[in-house]
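FORM 7B - TANDEM STRUCTURE REPORT

SECTION 1: FIRST PROTEIN
SEQUENCE AND TOKENS:
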Amino acid sequence: MAEHYEQVKQRWEERFESSYGRWRGLIDGVVYAFVDCGDFEHGFARIFCDACKSEFLLAFSCSRRGFCPSCAAKRGAMFGAFLREEVAEEVGHCLWTFTVDLRWHPHIHAIASRGGWDRAGAWRPVSWVDTHAAELVFRHKVIAFLAA
């Protein structure tokens, strides 16, 4: 990354802008943080255990979950554990990804339960979900939001 980044940036307009859109300024910070991720020269914390008296150094991470595979995996695992333990009931779920077809690919990840509770409080699973109907509802909501 460090070796070729400046070359890509210099050629972006002529080679990639027509397909992927203009160069966004926030990219520099993300890439430079990624290159420094886990490098002790760019900062670290000293970890000390009172119980066993052992210690070690932990290099700072870039915390760029959308770009750095290491930081993305950590945050993904933490978020998954949070969803499992604090948010989602122990019922069937599915993951839907709704996209808006623009050059920079905005999208939303949605976790939906595969069923619901009846008035008596009993869980009623649903074996099939109409994804086309969900797509239509999403499209309607996005257009209504943008029109407002």
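SECTION 2: SECOND PROTEIN
SEQUENCE AND TOKENS:
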Amino acid sequence: MAYPTGAGVQSYSGNYIPELWPKLLIVNWHDLTIVPDITNRNYEGQIKAFGDKLNIRTTPTVTSSAYTVGSLGTPQQPKSDNITMLVDKGSAYNFVLPTVTARQMDIDAASTFIAEAAVSQRNYIEDDVLGALAALANASNIGLTAGVKSGAYNLGVSGTPLAVTSTNIVDAIGAAEATLDEQTVPDDGRFLVIPPVLAWLIRSSELKDAAMTGDGKSILRNNSRLGRIGKFTLFVSNRVSKVTDTVSCWHCLFGHPYATTFATQITESREIPYTEDFGVLYQGLQVYGYKVTKSAGLGDLYVKKG
């Protein structure tokens, strides 16, 4: 575009002054993926296609009892139940690139568009998994009377979300932590997923002091990991399941990755002629599945900003 000219001055815009088209495109911003961090992918290498069925074997429970000489009682017969996980979900992209258009472009449009489509697939899967897991949390790890032994913790419930502020957010996180303690969930690997508004409350609270996090660094980080608070590694995500319950509320998942099995596989990626015109159809399919295999290790902190 030519520089503006005054009255009576000849403008050469459109004749000799070219328009410039840089080859570097404006990059879309995308949310970071956290599902791989809060689930286990122990069986991912075994899936091959949409509809695969995984039979996951569980460790049997063996109980002990008091012993008296000469009386062991009836021997137990440990039973190992199977848990079935279906790879019955998929995310696909499908776009056309006309041949003439592609050849006129001064960038590798196909590679650029495919990379963007792959991110879109990842976000679709992230939304689905995070949105579903809150409803699959253990009944003792949710609600106004959470705690399998005490029923003492208020984690919020539909219609009565827990109102969190920079003053009481420490207590809310502590209640979630205690809930898992009562389920004897291992300390190592625990997670809590929060939206940016809760991260802001934490940054406004006394937890800015790294000494309170049990972490060697400040909790002020630059990626999805906010740091450690108590026994939790905190993840910040824009894709935390949000609902309207009079006001905006969030289902903040917490637990241990061992609680949920997740598996995904890119099964199709193809380029085929576009029959409606001269061009190419680019299509891709990513299949996935998930299953809560140990619900005692999954909870839901249902909150609103106080």
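SECTION 3: OBSERVATIONS ON SECOND PROTEIN
The radius of gyration is 26 Å.
The chain is about 20% helix and 30% strand.

SECTION 4: SIGNATURE
Preparer initials: ____
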